[in-house]
Design goal:
Length: 418
């Protein structure tokens, strides 16, 4: 990875620069959390402007604002000369809705620090990582401006499918680079728990059940079918057995798909009306190697078997969304750089794993052709999308150090894998 003496000097300069940014990093993270960017409905203009102003404070110019819709800006920032490799650091600017405000101990947009943790909507998913990405770029510009091209990609709309964000950027030819790191929270039970090489795919589908809609008072007098009851039985059957019908190869980093049945459900009309229709939605997280056509065929085979066992069951599949899984090689140069940086900052390199959910990795890796680490960022995933979201208040500073060091080593290392 280059001459040891030169690298040591660059590392010391880079970390020294970031040490001086500690207070500013926390201030900026709090400002990001305090700036609403809830999706849906989706409007990232205020938080994108905040990022641009922060970069401008430190002399980072040339920010490209790209969008297919004015209220959904994406930012691309190039730092350093285009003399070799280009590393992408990526994060999203939007958050999920706060949900019931009375479930929060503190105002979701009033970031407070309690017992060493920063609270607020988006603090973990993923505004602390965004702050770390921004300051990694600022530090690299000030301490090591000559080492190569770091590209910051901060996107809209990740929380609602990336239609206006990474997906739009990739499909319109705006994403480019030799490798990418996405700063999604990688902890399940502890911070910085794993370097996630896999972004599991998502198969989102509905099953519609038909029954007999009639006056509810005659249900014991006529041969009728209760769509709600049939739906309930099918939900139980799917929950217990669908995974056994799926074709997949267990992966050493992620053993099996995950199925959540009935993430949404609705049935019936009102009192007095025997339910003639019911439907429920399912969320299946898939592994590398699984295809949309095969998954759809497996679900159809399961339904055919269920109908054969219950001739009164009238159920049909509506396959709504397919997001493929992605994976980066464990020996890719960007993974090696992250492992080095983690050892330097955390004291050890976290184990390699797969992200339980889906990230923007398919848009970077499959559409834009950029090998991508699916998730490595501060925070705990179970606290995301939940009331009282919070993370270690040093998360942004830790992220900035890891990203900056990883970028340094990746950009100055010899050409090869990645």
């Amino acid at each position: 990875m280059g001459a040891p003496g030169r690298l040591d000097a660059l590392e010391a300069r880079l970390l020294g620069t970031l040490d001086g940014f500690e207070a500013e990093l926390l201030r900026f993270t709090r400002a990001l959390v305090a700036t609403p960017s809830v999706n849906p409905p989706g409007d990232e203009r205020a938080v994108a402007l905040l990022v641009q102003e922060e970069l401008s404070r430190y002399g980072v110019s040339g920010v490209r604002v790209l969008s297919g819709e004015p209220s959904r800006p994406n930012l691309i920032v190039d730092i350093g000369p285009d003399t070799g490799r280009t590393l992408v650091l990526a994060g999203h600017l939007d958050t999920k809705p706060a949900g019931a405000l009375d479930a929060w101990e503190h105002d979701p947009w009033d970031p407070v620090t309690v017992d060493g943790e920063l609270w607020g909507l988006g603090s973990a998913d993923m505004k602390s990582a965004v702050a770390g990405i921004v300051y990694a770029g600022i530090a690299l510009k000030h301490a090591c401006p000559e080492v190569g091209r770091l590209r910051l990609v901060l996107t809209a709309d990740e929380e609602a499918g990336s239609i206006h964000g990474a997906k739009w950027l990739a499909e319109n030819g705006h994403l480019a680079g030799d490798a990418a790191i996405i700063g999604e929270p990688c902890g399940i039970t502890r911070e910085w728990e794993s370097i996630d090489l896999i972004s599991r795919g998502a198969a989102l589908f509905r099953i519609r059940v038909k029954g007999t809609q009639t006056h509810s008072s005659v249900s014991d007098l006529l041969p009728v079918v209760n769509a709600t009851v049939k739906m309930a039985g099918l939900i139980q059957r799917l929950d217990a057995g669908l995974l056994e019908w799926l074709h997949f190869a267990p992966h050493p980093l992620v053993a099996r798909p995950t199925l959540n049945v009935g993430v949404m459900a609705q049935a019936g009309v009102f009192y007095g009306v025997y339910p003639g229709t019911a439907e429920f939605a399912c969320d299946l997280r898939t592994l590398p190697g699984m295809s949309r056509d095969q998954v759809a065929a497996d679900i159809e085979a399961f339904l055919a078997d269920a109908r054969a066992q219950d001739p009164q069951l009238d159920a049909e599949l509506d396959f709504e969304v397919w997001v493929p899984a992605t994976e980066i090689d464990s020996d890719h140069a960007v993974v090696v750089a992250l492992q080095f940086a983690s050892r330097r900052v955390l004291g050890e390199a976290p184990p390699l794993a797969g992200f339980p959910g889906a990230t923007d990795a398919p848009h970077f890796q499959l559409t834009a052709g950029i090998p991508t680490v699916a998730a490595f960022g501060p925070g705990l995933l179970p606290r995301a999308h939940s009331p009282n979201e919070r993370l270690d208040a040093t998360g942004a500073a830790t992220a900035a150090r890891i990203y900056a060091l990883a970028a340094l080593h990746y950009l100055v290392s010899p050409a090869g894998n990645g």
